[in-house]
Amino acid sequence: MTQRAHIDTGGPEPDSTGAPIDAGAELDPVHPAPPPGKADKGCGEASDKGGGGRRAGLTTAEVAERVARGEVNDVPVRSSRSAADIVRANVFTRFNLIIGVLWVIMMFVAPFQDTAFGYVILANTGIGIIQELRAKKTLDNLAVIGEAKPTVRRDGRAAEISTSEIVLGDLIEIGPGDKIVVDGTCAEAESLEIDESLLTGEADPVLKKPGDIVMSGSFVVAGGGAFTATKVGREAYAAQLAEEASRFTLVHSELRSGISTILKYVTWLMIPTSIGLVISQLVVKDDNFKESIAYTVGGIVPMIPEGLVLLTSVAFAIGVIRLGRKQCLVQELPAIEGLARVDTVCLDKTGTLTEGGMDVTELRMLNGSDETYVRKVLGALGESDPRPNASLQAIIDAYPDSEEWRCTESLPFSSARKYSGASFSEGNGESSTWLLGAPDVLLPDSDPALDDIEALNQQGLRVLLLARADKELDDAAVADGAAAQALVVLEQRLRPDAADTLRYFEEQDVKAKVISGDNAVSVGAVAGKLNLPGADRTVDARTLPEDQAEMAKVLDENAVFGRVTPQQKRDMVGAMQSKGHTVAMTGDGVNDVLALKDADIGVSMGSGSEATRAVAQIVLLNNSFATLPSVVAEGRRVIGNITRVATLFLVKTVYSVLIALLVVCTQVEYLFLPRHLTLLSTLTIGVPAFFLALAPNKERAKPHFVRRVMRYAIPGGAVAAVATFSTYLLARAHYSGAGAREAETSAATLTLFLIAMWVLAIIARPYTWWRICLIGAMGAGFLLVMVVPWLQDFFKLKLVGTTMPWSAVAIAVAAAALIEFVFRWVDRKFPA
């Protein structure tokens, strides 16, 4: 074909009667429609240019005046934290302060092997900083307005400038693919279509005419033109959303807050304990000053679960790496934990459950029309549009073009008339005029086909009517008397993985809520095809109560919501949170920004707006909703395992505090040097906990982290402390002379090691071959230290005689049996 008509058959989503619904009518009432019947003359030629010819734009003097008045596009600051903020937040923590002070002290009074505990600071801080800087680097240039270089016409000449240089009143040229960077009024238009889906949630482009409003955050999908900037900087719509979302907030982490709570109490315990230890070790016993300080620090350091802090960061970081391989970017480490705790996930239909494309599912003939001829008509209509939308692209894919047909005139789609059209020379001397659009507009109210169309719409199908007109396209009454020829039934293309993903959430007891700006019936039909529970109960968001409690009740009872405005999305998230739900929100448009920010976890599609990617904690770079189960599973693995191994660390905290108090009360020398507890922590906690934290775990994350772990840690630590201190007192009575203190410490260390190994054996259940090997390897490591001479000297550990070592073993066995009994009693008495 030599000429091409501009036909827009898609329009906005049809309502239950088959008529496309004007997206702007509900969400943006500033899109005046062109008068019915106004046709473009000549296919592909512009007939909707702004009057007055090409405009010159502002003069240099006018630009200078506006700059002087401050009428410039001062884009809001980015919503991500600066590198300095990231470093500061990771370095200046309570944990680093406590360990850091003790580390510095030990550097002056003790050999290297007693300062190893301090290097945990470097590892923990480094992991946090590197991960957050990595995420920041990936998204550093993502802000709501982006780094677009708009073309501005000034003094009659067009030139590219930075978005920050735009002033009020500038004339900005736009073409296919260009982003609208400020709000304005359309001044020139040539078949200009703008996609406002990121603002309104509507998937279909809007045809713009001179005088129409264009808004920042939207972009051009077809045609071209120019618009005059009427709102710049913080006045612009998208910028206002970004401004409100610009305050960076870290996702809540119960693990981190729980550990912080434990550290807070440990800090208060450390103050009197440290004073008591200093007095008992230095004043009462009058020992060597440096050695007294070393033993004092040796009593304080194990109170701090420093390994738990490091392991949490390592587990999160490894989870981030694993998800990164699946094209999932985690911007904040605790976001993995957050999604593992989610019990409600809010989804959009377009782009999440459905793909951008559509398919023709049926061509239904009307009034005895010839199907072969109708297919030729549809092929010609499809080929006549140089920029087909999803609906027309489906027709193009289904019906090839007939080369002998030539377009002579076209009528673009308008939301006012709800149809488009074209006239053709058929190649055999015949001419014909065709209309394609909403059946309820092109058919009389009494037509029996409307009942069938209603049934199709209830199934979520889009129905277009092909009709032959006997009037000219520029006749305002061209649709009157048009003869219906066929119904074109279209279906949105479902994501192949959407059903499996929804099924996964259902199995994991996570409620899925579909929240869309599209027609509620259509959204419900799509959800029904994916077997979403509750898809048969759809709610038009315009009927939702404003009261938060009433809204929350409706949200709990239903799963599918249509015609949802951006503010309502935010209100709905708040309403669900008010009922104690942990909410994840997925989105890709500027209209989702505030809801994403308010949700417990925000998940953005990689192809979405820069604003959503900047405020979301998780970005699906491959735009695949099917990645979410992997994120949830990874989160559950991390949280379940950390909760499990945290018991190991906190048992150590409890027995360290109690041993220190026993030392102060009895006025004896402290049992261990820091190197002794470093060895014990490494073999019974650090190394095994690392492997246990990476093991598979599908258990759903449960709340009350501190309570869950302390119910084991307190009795377990108390038994370990009493048993170890008893062994130490027996050893003090048994040994005397040179080397006695080292022998006493070695006996106590043996008892504590065996008890800690039994706690590890309990935590490692159920046993697998690698868990048994892990426990065996840790035992072999301790045995190696006790029999190799240079390791004995390095750690100052040497068992003397046989009586006391076997007594230490007997005490440890009795303590292990008591711990086994206590843990089982706790399980029955205080279930999680």
TrEMBL record:
Main location: membrane
Residue intervals of the P-type ATPase A domain: 150-244
Protein's UniProt keywords contain Translocase: yes
Localization terms from the record: Cell membrane
Keywords for this protein: Membrane, Translocase, Transmembrane, Transmembrane helix
Topology relative to the membrane: Multi-pass membrane protein
Taxonomic superkingdom: Bacteria
Signal peptide as annotated in the record: none
SUPFAM superfamilies, sorted: Calcium ATPase, transduction domain A (SSF81653), Calcium ATPase, transmembrane domain M (SSF81665), HAD-like (SSF56784)
One of the Pfam families matching this protein, by short name: Hydrolase
Biased composition (Basic and acidic residues): 38-48
Membrane-crossing segments per the record: 91-110, 116-133, 265-284, 304-323, 645-664, 676-697, 709-731, 743-763, 770-791, 803-823
Region spans: Disordered: 1-57
NCBIfam families in the record: ATPase_P-type (TIGR01494)
Name of the protein this chain belongs to: HAD-IC family P-type ATPase
